[in-house]
Amino acid sequence: MALDININYRIKRNADQEDAMRYLANELKVFKDYAHILLASAIVGYNNGLYVEIENYASDAVQLTFFTERERDLIDFIAYAHKKEQAVLNSEEKFTIFESYANGGFDLLLNRLGVNMDDKSKNDRILILKKVYQLLLLGVN
Amino acid sequence: MMKLLQISYHNYRCFQDDMTLKFNTTGDKNIALVIAPNGGGKTEMLFSFWYVLYDFDFSSLKEKKATPYALNAQSYLKLKNGENNDTDNCYVTLSFENDGKIYTISRKEIYTKKSSGIVSEQLVTLITRDRNNSKSLPLSDKDAIYRIIERIIPKKILHGIIFDGERMKELSKVGVESRDAIQGIIQDITNEELYEMCKTELEEIKKKAKKDQTKYASSMPSCSLNELISNISSLEEKNKILTTEIEINKGIIESNTNRIREIEVELRNDESSRENEIKREGYKKQLDSANKRLENEVDNFYHALDNGYLLLCDKLFNDIESRIKSEDIPDDLTVKAVESILHGKSGKCICGHDIHECEREILLDLIKKLPPDNINSTILQMCKGSKHAEADAERNLKLFFKNIRETEKEIEELKAQITEVSARIIGEGVSARVKELEKERADLTYVKRRAAEDNISKDVAIKNNKKDIAEYSKQRDNLSKNSKDLNFYVTKERIAEHFLEALVSLDEANSKKALLNINEKLDKAYMNISEDYTRGRRIYIVQFDEKSKYRLISYYQSQYDERFQSALKSGLLETFKIKGLSSEEIHEKIILEVATSNSTGQSKINTLAFAKAILDYSNEERDENSFEITKNYPFMIDSPFTELSGDNLFFSSRALHTFARQIILMVSAKSLETVEQNIKPFVGSINKLRKIEGESRSVLE
């Protein structure tokens, strides 16, 4: 049902988070792709009130088509819950809101998962997946 | 097609007397029989083909380490006890036909007694005769001879066409030698050498382009370009060294693994440790299987995380529902409906009362809040749908996580059991030898683990270096835009890199296609010569799994089918497909899970089937445009029928003449009796060797 006013829109990311996101998706394989990382980050950001606008944009944004319909619904939900008015669902502002929560929530997510970006050899995939599980099921936000 | 014609000896190994064996094989009568008793020189004869074509390291033969030289042992001893500057010599001469030409290659070795010991010098000659019978001048340049022989019968291919008893066991082992042997054969018959040659050429072009860049940069006033190019070269060099070190570690891991297996066999054979060792091996097998299962379960969990984010959405859904409820607006109320009340003809509310000013303000405010299409109800429905999906996601995650926990627990228990049994193995009552072996085993395991850990950190270092190389290259490219010459060298390097990548892909695709083909032929060959085939036993060459690639393994079809069905039911097959695995890769994964070990007889049959598959593949007709070249080689085999019995013996002896267009078959008279009926119709020539008792020599009868 998501009101896709622009299906070609690309969800922007913070350039400073690029390395960590790539590591989580491609090397450690804790998240399937950037879309999933952004979703999880945005929800964590929303749950903790971490709305931070992006200042330094990554060159590589994520096409909206990489999000499933349900995932695009989530983008709408977050925008609506933030702005508290339905008009936002018809504007591109909803994407900016999503991007800002994702930007704010990502560092907290990374911290909660205990990912060591300085010494990656210390990261145990199974352990981190278990932390993801704890985060999801025990609602540790 | 290559066809052996004859081989002659003079004072060589156990063939002290001059002799010539002729191999008169034509058409259907394609077997040249060499009959010799045990110790009569069959193995020596096989390796003489190696020797004359490419020289041979006799010290590599397990039971011949005492005589690591080509000269007959008696002659060598006589020389050793003789005077300084005494000499003796030996030679082997082989004649063979290839594509209408006859080649005669002779390798002569002259031994001289010196005060420091015995030294030897080799002379090689090659004479060719063409269809018109014109003889060439003898060629004696070793390198030139080597190049000619390599083109006709590459060195690696000898592994695939010369089979002595020891080699046949090796091919069915799980070791570096067997895998190397199988890999060498397969790479050669799939023209791997051609790819390697092209890769080498492209690497040279890349190297030259880099040198030119460095030369250019050093002539420039700007240091940064020089520095960039130097950094790139230095990092690439570091990566080469790291890659070599990783291979060395892999070799250590492999050889330690083999030695550990040998130790385990010894421990099984020792009475004081047998029971515990068998128990430990059982636990280790279970542990391997549990580790594999854990890998799959972690992957299943990872895939189930796709909808995991929904579990974090409770606050979001609650906030949305509260927001909608707080507006106290009926779900389906639209702007149109409110406007119709405000601007209605009667100027009154639907209840009939006049609309007061404050009420008008409220209605106007309400219009502002409502979008033209009030989607409150839609949003609520979406929330409801997401909550259902959340419940499903939670259920799946809990299930997969539970599986992981249970398997981890099982792994911990098995590890504890292994530790306990290992302590019992070196406990009271065991022999000193067992304690020694167990200590060696523990040390080897430790070294293996350290090598594996070292490889992980080296892999990370290589990746980081590659990232830096990419960054420096970007900067270099930016600087090079202003210089036509530098740009040219950089572009040349890039093109060579792209060609290399394309070649690697082509090589991989070719190798994959070839291995699939060989596995098909392997199955057919095994079906024709093994009695175990009807009992459901199958053999397979591993091609996708990096750790086990080129291993020749056995499995039972019934166990495969059972595992396949269980993987289908549990959704594992679906998971594999989602991961992008092809049906062939999935097939192999299941085979590896149900692989079994072989008896000696089975190893022999496996190797015969492998030899047949390779020969069939090599001799298969291909179209002119194919990148692969058809080759036809003779097949030389020593005592293929010992340790075989029943139907295995019958089928393999009956099928032997189909293996190649020419077969040099070495058997003892006793072994021949068991298969004479099947072999005799295809025999073109017979040579008989007789062992001289009390002397280390054999003669031709």
Explain what this protein looks like in three dimensions:
The complex is a heterodimer of chains A (141) and B (701). Chain A is mostly helical and 141 residues long. Chain A is built from 5 helices and 2 strands; from the N terminus they run E-H-H-E-H-H-H. Chain A has helices at 18-27, 34-47, 69-83, 93-113, 125-137; strands at residues 10-11, 62-63. A two-stranded antiparallel sheet of chain A has the order 1-2. The longest helix of chain A is centred in the last third of the chain and has 21 residues, at 93-113. Chain B has 21 helices and 13 strands. Chain B has helices spanning 42-54, 73-80, 142-152, 158-161, 165-171, 176-189, 192-218, 223-269, 274-304, 314-326, 335-342, 357-369, 376-425, 432-480, 484-529, 557-570, 572-578, 583-594, 600-619, 646-655, 669-679, and strands spanning 2-10, 19-22, 31-35, 87-98, 101-114, 117-129, 162-163, 537-541, 552-556, 635-638, 663-667, 683-692, 697-700. Classes of the chains: A mainly alpha (141), B alpha/beta (701). The A-B interface holds A 1, 29-32, 36, 39-40, 43-44, 46-47, 70-71, 73-74, 76-78, 80-81, 84-87, 89-90, 120-121, 125-126, 129-130, 132-133, 135-137, 139, 141 and B 298, 301-303, 305-309, 311-317, 319-320, 323, 369-371, 374-376, 378-379, 382-383, 385-386, 389, 394, 397-398, 401, 404, 456-457, 460.
Task: Give the gist of this structure.
Chain A is an all-alpha fold.
What fraction, in percent, of the residue positions of chain B are helical?
Answer: 55-70%
Total strands of chain B = 13
Multimeric state of these chains? heterodimer
Euclidean distance between termini CA atoms of chain B? 30 Å
Q: Please report the two chains with the greatest interface, counting residues with C-beta closer than 8 angstroms to the partner's C-beta.
A: A-B, 40 and 40 residues
Please state the overall shape of chain B, judged from the principal axes of the Cα atoms. elongated
